[in-house]
Structure formats: structure tokens, C-alpha cells
Amino acid sequence: MSSDINRSWRMTGFGLPRLELAEGRIPEPGPHDLLVRIKAISLNYKDRMIVDGVLIPDLGFPFVPTSDAVGEVVAVGGDVSRFRTGQRVLGHVIADWPDGDAPPVLHHHTLGSSLPGTLSDYLLLHEDAAVLAPPSLSDAEASTLPIAALTAWFAMAEATRPVPGQTILIQGTGGVSLFALQFAHAFGLRAIVTSSSDGKLEWAKTLGAWQVINYRARPAWDEAARELTGGAGVNHILEMVGGDNARRSLDALAADGRLSIIGLLGSMELSFPIVPFLRNRIVVQGISIGHRRAFERMNQAIEALAIKPVIDKIFGFDEVPRAFEHLEKGPFGKIVITTA
Amino acid sequence: MSSDINRSWRMTGFGLPRLELAEGRIPEPGPHDLLVRIKAISLNYKDRMIVDGVLIPDLGFPFVPTSDAVGEVVAVGGDVSRFRTGQRVLGHVIADWPDGDAPPVLHHHTLGSSLPGTLSDYLLLHEDAAVLAPPSLSDAEASTLPIAALTAWFAMAEATRPVPGQTILIQGTGGVSLFALQFAHAFGLRAIVTSSSDGKLEWAKTLGAWQVINYRARPAWDEAARELTGGAGVNHILEMVGGDNARRSLDALAADGRLSIIGLLGSMELSFPIVPFLRNRIVVQGISIGHRRAFERMNQAIEALAIKPVIDKIFGFDEVPRAFEHLEKGPFGKIVITTA
Amino acid sequence: MSSDINRSWRMTGFGLPRLELAEGRIPEPGPHDLLVRIKAISLNYKDRMIVDGVLIPDLGFPFVPTSDAVGEVVAVGGDVSRFRTGQRVLGHVIADWPDGDAPPVLHHHTLGSSLPGTLSDYLLLHEDAAVLAPPSLSDAEASTLPIAALTAWFAMAEATRPVPGQTILIQGTGGVSLFALQFAHAFGLRAIVTSSSDGKLEWAKTLGAWQVINYRARPAWDEAARELTGGAGVNHILEMVGGDNARRSLDALAADGRLSIIGLLGSMELSFPIVPFLRNRIVVQGISIGHRRAFERMNQAIEALAIKPVIDKIFGFDEVPRAFEHLEKGPFGKIVITTA
Amino acid sequence: MSSDINRSWRMTGFGLPRLELAEGRIPEPGPHDLLVRIKAISLNYKDRMIVDGVLIPDLGFPFVPTSDAVGEVVAVGGDVSRFRTGQRVLGHVIADWPDGDAPPVLHHHTLGSSLPGTLSDYLLLHEDAAVLAPPSLSDAEASTLPIAALTAWFAMAEATRPVPGQTILIQGTGGVSLFALQFAHAFGLRAIVTSSSDGKLEWAKTLGAWQVINYRARPAWDEAARELTGGAGVNHILEMVGGDNARRSLDALAADGRLSIIGLLGSMELSFPIVPFLRNRIVVQGISIGHRRAFERMNQAIEALAIKPVIDKIFGFDEVPRAFEHLEKGPFGKIVITTA
């Protein structure tokens, strides 16, 4: 890699075949920008949905996809005060959400969506849209944090008050779910993990799952969850599927239970019976990644708790299409692309 | 009324014709009981659903229905310390919920449901399941508080943090809705009220509604609500209907908006699209009346704010069947039965 | 006033005699700056402490004091997206606190402290450090909000959950206290106001005080407050004095009571006995103005609640030293300086 | 021990020599009482202050002291529904605080204070003032929970929102402090422990302390704490001493830091400078043990987290005076008395 060429994967249309490697110039930082030499990028399922044209049908081309990246600050604009060259930073995906409530929806500045993505050698980040990477993590590990880890953290530690000793049910073993499992274990929560694969459930146990349910063997996983909790029900469920699955989630919840809506993997609808909703005083909350302050708190926790992200496979920068294909195979852990 | 006869309306089966007036003995208070001479009873829509066999199909007969009542303590058990004779008290409907989280569902002791109801001359209340009535209210007014007012209060002041200046949309003009409107006005919230009746909407304005929407004239009331808020959406909606109406509620909510699920008047299902749920970080919460501490706080607020419950009509104790029939007519305000 | 001259009052040293009127050039906005033509400035007591050298002993000269200002955006930098020319804005005093937790202390960018103040014809504001002024207020009224109103709002509606019907005790009738009184009235709180002046207490009643205490006539004002609350104590107290006065505040608080520490008018020390602190589970919280999101919420509430700031006197721009002198006289309401 | 004799240690006046062993009858349970055969009692420092006449100068004699106890339910009153004979229960010390806010102070029913204490073979507990003991703990271990563990839990998990990765400073190695240290470790918090003894600090490390400070070697322990946190300060401090020590706590706190006031070991006064209080938006909260719901949640966490209370020494029932004397020696862990 030469220092004055900026390689990028650009969508020239929808579909993986139209994702093309191109070379361009290294961008110039504005007064408050960081020029970041990217070291590693992590894929999320929504990246595939964007490449395939499912999530943002009116995207303009060419477009550089992906949102997760870690890199080194190699230059800064004249007014930058939060960072200096040489620091290792992560991009903050919802760039205009520093803390508290989110900005009004239409003004979202989101990496890899309304803003260009991260699948390049170089990236400009506004200094307000970056955080220091946790020093204990490798580049590949750090790259996995911006969406999957922050979503799990926000659902479990910001939008919900974690009460050690309580139960949490985590659906599946995707990127958010594995971080949720690691956080649950570190927070003193009892995690129940569901999957259709006994092998993945075994791995989940090694990551700290308290109990596991194979929903293929036990389709009424809500009843199984209730049994595991002595009939009381689960205190918090991370809903990754939607549709009728959410009805089971409702059935599995304890009184004053909480359901965090996270996933886009299944149905685009949620449907609940009202009576148990009222009787158990259920709270359902929609989660959309998180704010920068939460990202900073999470990174501090990752250091304190010595959490290591689970990586399924690392690909080279010229293997990006294969990396996207691998994403379809239901990996156990994150898929990472390095620029080295 | 003789002092040693206890008249009660008892269900001897389902259906209004099987609600019969009977006479019995005045019950003896146990060590922690209050014997209350009931002065006024208020009807809730769920009382009709119980009488008709819709809500509790396995009810045992005979059964005294209704939950709301105010009366005077005329005798106390030997160990009672919270009250003394002569005080005017309201029964607390979820009798074993003093504060904080509710007790596990199956152990609920609920007046007019798992416990006998209030449609009698005399009632025993455990001293832990009663609160002082607000002195500024008449008996008829005070009798309306235990379910309708406390549900509105709990949704707006306990389960939600009220932020003066924010908007709240209140569906309809039933008992909970009118209290919600009065509280909204007194809390500095901007209340939007929906109804199919222009006449009721006019009355709502006199109670402090900021804006009104006739959803018959404007079926897309969610769009109307969004327009009234300059496109931002509503901060809090009290959902009284369910079903597809809840989809409109979701559409009408602002970013970080909140939907309180309260009603049993319409569908028994809730159904939402996931994308706006995630994007706007919506919170949906089920409300089931409230705890005793909230009841006490509400009564203090009713005094401080000089709130007067809206009463549609007062019936005599021998007119109970007519009072239930009147409930079907869509009254504007509560229906009260006096024992005098 | 000519359009190309920028008048400013500048401290050339400590003490009011060294506050001098000077003329300079109109500053040029940077890419994210608003150039604001100031219409009105409001004084706070801490402005006098800065002019006198009490609050920031190591201030560099020349220095333009004061923090509160309202004005019209007359030009914007090339990258500004939040505002446009012609809008009327208020400067947000802690410029780098958008929402949630505050930034680390040493990085504070504070108008009239680490940043230049507002006592000029023209001011540059970063677009992230401004909010729209409430349209219902005059320039003079709007200018009073950034410190006094936001401090009261933050203590009462952000750092504390307001519960209508509860009691709040407000010490004195200074700028923060009068806004607190108006908010209390509008939120459905019962406000007790203390003062040494019967005349001011009468005015406080016209602003909605529920009860008043003249602490000169009744030095044990804590006992008086307890009596007014039927022995229960006050739920929230705004502490403006410190020192031994805070001990009385502690004595006047109810169980689970809250004390907001706001003022710098009296002692620089707080001192409490431990036993009642523990027994009543008291919470004491330090308040430092507030974040921008709170400012926006407050302005929305001011519109909804039709709150009009209380102004004691308006001075011309050439009368600034007299305005500072007037501040010493214990005005009832804010002191405003207009640039017209 | 014969089954029909009830041994008790009774204060016949103030001072340890007037604590005398007596025999009496086994009490009869009222309708809602549990008769508990006590297995183990744990001492708290306040028990010594009561025996010595320091804490409750107007105590009536004879009086059975101590508050912590575990035992077996051997009989129940006729109306008891929450427990059955054979279950192992812990007494809940503030007997009338089930959840949420505490009851008004003067009505407190507190074991070993306004109610008789636990230093007996048999004890009556109202069924609402008991919780199941965690099954994984021995009798001696379980007996230590009601005051020391619940106080630490309430300060860290109920009155404060625990954020994994944040720092907590725990003063000393008394009973509350050791539980706090174990909870901190299990919650993912970084615990800094202070002590004057290097030996105790070594033990603290084996219980999971992240850092330790010997305040004899480093009297300016606040500066040491600030250094350990890279200058940012500590997020939460458990104040066990009061007086000038609380000033150091304030200095050691980070922005938005929190100080929980717990201890009665040192001064009876708290004293703070106002400026850092305001600037850092400090919250100080008084802690008084906790409510029953918190006790239940804590016991669930103790099971999930496999926490084992630290016991310094176990004494026989006839060795009570020696146990009280041992309390003065600064033990590392709780002192327990068994009735066996």
C-alpha cells in the first residue's frame, strides 16, 4: 500500500457484484476533522442489506459501505482539540449523537448510511464523532465495537438498569448477541442463550451462558425459559427476530420485564397480545446503537472487564466480496477486514 | 338504611339481569381490617366486562362486583395502626402493591376481582389497602379515583417522567382520558385529545385540551397530530384502543417517544412496524393501575392542583342496573352510585 | 449605532471603575460560527463577582464580562447547518455541554468565563452553543433565561423528577428563585418562599407562592416550613446560601427529601449533621446551570406555560456601571441592558 | 438446648457488663407472625453503640439487642401466606419498608431498635418482614446479610446505577466495606480500597480490589485516588467516616460523581466546600440499609454471583460479651454468634 493512494470499495449499484475496488486521493481534513488511516473494518448484517439494496433503496452511487472501523489519526484539522496524531480511534456511527436523547431523526449523520462508509484506506471523521479505541484490544478486535458491541451495551447498561443476579435472554449468537452474552456474564446477570445449533450453544456456554435453549428441539422456548426461572419469567429479553417470535418473548417475560427491540433479521413487524402486556407491566424499548458517551463508558468497561470480542474470521482488503459471502453463513463471531 | 343490614349487589351468574340486590350481615373486621361504611361507588368499563363474563370467565358466584369506593371507617381491628374510626378512606384496588415493583402476578389481591368488590353498604379493607380520601372532594367525586385517576396518574407521573411543555395525546374521553387531560393541564403538558364527537371535543377544550382531533373527520389522526407538533411528533400517547390504532400511535410519536398501553376497549392485540420503533427509540409500557404510594402522591396533587373529577351522572343504590346501562352510552365523565 | 462598529464593555482590571466602554471591529464568523447582533443582555450576581475579581482571580485583561444575551443571527459561517440569518438566538453558557453528563471540568467552554462574555454589540457563537429564543418573549425577557432560568429548570425538572403536589422551598427572591417560583407554580408544586422582606413575600404570592416565611421574623424557618407541611417536611429545597443555613435546610426536609445546591451568595461551605442525613435518606445535588437540550426543553415549556420572566429594571448600553450598582440593591427580578 | 426454653441476651442497663443472659418463654405467633428458631446472629458496630448507650440514649430495659439473624420457621400464625414452616429466613431490619420510598421516619419498625432485637433462641417476625435466606450460604454466612450486605447493595445497586467499568472507592475494611468490595468486583466496577493496614489491603486485593491506598502512608488519599484514575477522579465513594474525611472524598470525586453517606464510625458531621460541589455536579446521598425488595434482589445476586460473606470469627451463644469485645479489635470480616 502506497501512502498516497486511498483504496475504497464502492457500490456502483445494488448487489455484491457491483461492489468494486477503486483508488482515489487521500481526503483533506477540514478544521475539525481527523484523517484516519484505517487498520481494520468489521461487517454487520445491515451492511449486506445496504449492498443488496434492501435497507436504503434510494442510495446514491458510488457509495462506500460499512460503518465499523478502527484506525490511526495521521493528520488533524487546524481546530481539532479532542485528538492528536498517533492516537488509535474508532468512528462513532451516529455521528451527531453525543449523549442524552438522540437528535431528531432526519438530521442523523450516520457513517455508512447518510455519511460515506468506512471500507477504505483513509477516512475523515469529525473530531466529535470519534472515541479512543480500548488499548487492550488488537485492531481486528477493536474494529468490531462501533455497532454490535455498542448496541448490546446500550440495551443492557444505558436504556436498562442492569441488576446483578437478574436474568437476561439473548436470542441467537450473532454479533450483538455474543457481546450481550459477554456483558451479561461480566455484569453478574444470568444469561439464557437460544439457538438452533447445539454447537453454537456449547460455545455460548464457554462465553458464560448460564443456560441454553435449542429452539429447534424446543420450539416453545418461552415455556423453557419460564421453567429455567422457576416460573417467574425472564427479566430482560433482547429481541432479534420480531413477528411471532416477539409474542413468545412477551410470554417469557417476568412481571416488570423488559424487551429490547434490536434486530432486523426476521420480520418487519411486532405483534403482542395486550392482556399480559398490561398485567405484567411490560416495557418494550427500541434500540438504535447508542451515543458517544455510552461508547466511551463501554470502552472503559471493556478494559476493566478484560472482554475480548469474538472474531469468526479475518479477511484481507482484497477479499471483501468473500467476506460478505461469509456473513451469510451464520458465523460465530464478527467478520473483520484488515487493510494491511 | 338500617345500621345492621348490609345491602350488596351480587352476581348470581353472568349478565346484568343476574346482578341482584341482597341483604346480609355486616362483616367483622379482623385484627388489621377496617370496616368501612361505603358512601359512593364509581363504575369502570371493566366492571361491565366482569358482569358480562367477558373478563373473568371462571368467576365464582355469588360475587359482588366493582372496585372503586369511598367510605367512612366505622370500626377497626385490634392491631390497626394506620387509620382510626371517622376517617374517610378509599380502597386501594391492587391491595398487595404498596410501592416499587408489583408483586408477582398470581398473588394479586385485587378488589372486585380476586377479592370481593365494593358494591355494598359495608366493606372490609386491610389497613394496608386503603388511603385517605382527598378532603376537598365530595364523596361522589372521591369515589372515582381508585382506578381511572390512578391509572392516568401512574402512566403520566410515575411510569413516565413528566416534562412540562411536552405534548401528550389522549385517546377518547373515557374515565382515564378525562383524568389524564386534567393532569396534563395541571402538569404544564400540552394535551391533544381525540374523539369522534365534536361535542366531547368542545368539552375537552374547557378542561384544558391544547388541541383536539376528530378522528371521524380525520381518520389519519396520526398525521394530524404530527402537523400540530410542527412535524416533530408527540412525546407521549395514552393508547386506549390497540390493534391497528396502535400503529397510528407509533406513527404519531416523536423521537424518544413513549406509548402507554392502558385500554381494553378495542382490540386485544398490539401490532407495530419495527423500523420506526428502532429509528425513533420508542418505549411502550403496559400500565395496570398503580401502587399505594402513587395513590397517596396523586391525592396530594389533587389537593394542591384543585382538580375536580368530572362526573356524568349519579345513581341511587337501587338504580345499579340502570347505572350499568348508562355506562354503555359513552358518558362524558364518571358514573357514580351512592348508598345514601 | 452604526452597523460597522462593535461596542463592548471591557474589564481592564478588577473593580467596576475599570470596566470601560470600547469600540472594536465586528468579528468574522468561522465555519461553524454565528455572528449575532445582540439585542439585550441580562446580569447575574456572578458577573459582579467576576468584575470585582472575587470569582476568577487569574482573569486576563481586557475581558468582556457577562454571560446572558439574546440577539439576531446576522451572518453565519460556511458550514453552519443549525441556524440561519434572521433567527433570534440565545447563547448557551456552558458551550460544550449538549446533553447528558457534562464534559470534564477543565475543558469547559463557558461564556463570560473561559470564553469572552456577551456585553457587546456583536458576539460570535458556535452553532452548537445557541438555541432559539422563545417567540412569546420580548428581547429583554428572553435575555434573562440562559443562567437564572436554566439553573432553576435544571434543578427542578432535569436533576430532580418533579412530582405535582409535592412541596418545594425556595430561598430568597433572586433571579434563580423567581424562575423557580414560576416553574413550581406551573408544574403543580406547592412553593414555600423565604425572604427577609414582607414586601417581596407579597410579590412572591402574586407569582404563585403557596406559603411564605419571613426568616427575619422567624429565624427558625426550618421549623416554620415543617409546620406548614403538617410535620412531614419539604420534599425539595433550593439552597442559595450555604453554611449554617444548609443545616436548617436539612432539618426542614422530608424523608427522601432533596437539596439542590445552587447559590454562591453566602458561605463557601456546606455543613450537615450525619444522623438526619442517614435517617431520612437525603440527597444533596450540586447544580451548575444545565445542558443545551434542557435549555431547548425549558424554552418549549416557557411557551406552553406562558411564563413571563420578572424584570426589575432595564438599562441602556451606556448605563452598564449603574446597572451593576443596581444589582447590589437586592432587586426583585432581573436587570437587563439593551443595546438599542 | 431444650425446645421449650428461649434464651436471650438482655440489656438491663447501658454497658457491656449489664448485658445478661436470661431465659424466658417461647413467644406465640400472632396471625401474621413467623416463629423463628434462630441459628446465627451477626454483630454490627451499631449494636455496640446501642449496648453502650451512645446511639439510643432513651432505650427502655430490659432490651434484647442486635438486628441480624437467620433461622428456621418453626411455626406460623393462622393468616400467614408468604412462608411455611421449615423454610430458612432472614429478618428484614426496617420491618415496614417493603419497596420504593421508606415510610415516614417516626413510624419505623426496626429490629433491634424500636422492635426487640435478635439475640435470642426464638424470634417472632411479621411475615412481611422476612426474606428467604440464599440457599448457597451457611447459617453463619447468611446471618451477616441483613445490615452490612444490604447497606452496600442499596448504595451500589439501588440508590446508584452501577455502570460496569467505572471506579468506586471503598473506605476501610469493615462489614459494609467488604461486601461493597465483593459486589464491586462482581458488578464489573474497579474498586479502590483504603485502609491504614497493609495487611488488610493485601486481603482486600484477594477479594478483588483493583487498587489500594494506605492512608497512613498517604494521608492525602484523595490525591492518590485521583492519580490512580488518571486525573479524572472516582465515580462513586462510600463515605464511612464523615467530618474532614468527607472533604477529601469530595476532592477525589470525578465530574458527576456520587458520594454515599453510610458510616457512623467517625464524626457526626459532614462538611464540604461549595465550589467543587457545584462545578462537578456532585450528588451526596444518605443510605439507611434498604427495603425488602432490594434484599430479595440482593439474595438473588448473591446466588448468581456465588458471593461468600467474609467471616472473621464465630462465637458460641454463651460467648456474646467476648464477641462484642472482639468487635472493637477491627476484625476483617463479620463476627457471628451461633445458637447451636
UniProtKB/TrEMBL annotation, chains A, B, C, D:
InterPro entries per record: ADH-like_C (IPR013149), ADH-like_N (IPR013154), ER (IPR020843), GroES-like_sf (IPR011032), NAD(P)-bd_dom_sf (IPR036291), Zinc_ADH-like (IPR052711)
Pfam families: ADH_N, ADH_zinc_N
Domain Enoyl reductase (ER) positions: 15-337
SUPFAM superfamilies: GroES-like, NAD(P)-binding Rossmann-fold domains
Protein known as: NAD(P)-dependent alcohol dehydrogenase
Gene source species: Mesorhizobium salmacidum
Organism taxonomic ancestry: Bacteria, Pseudomonadati, Pseudomonadota, Alphaproteobacteria, Hyphomicrobiales
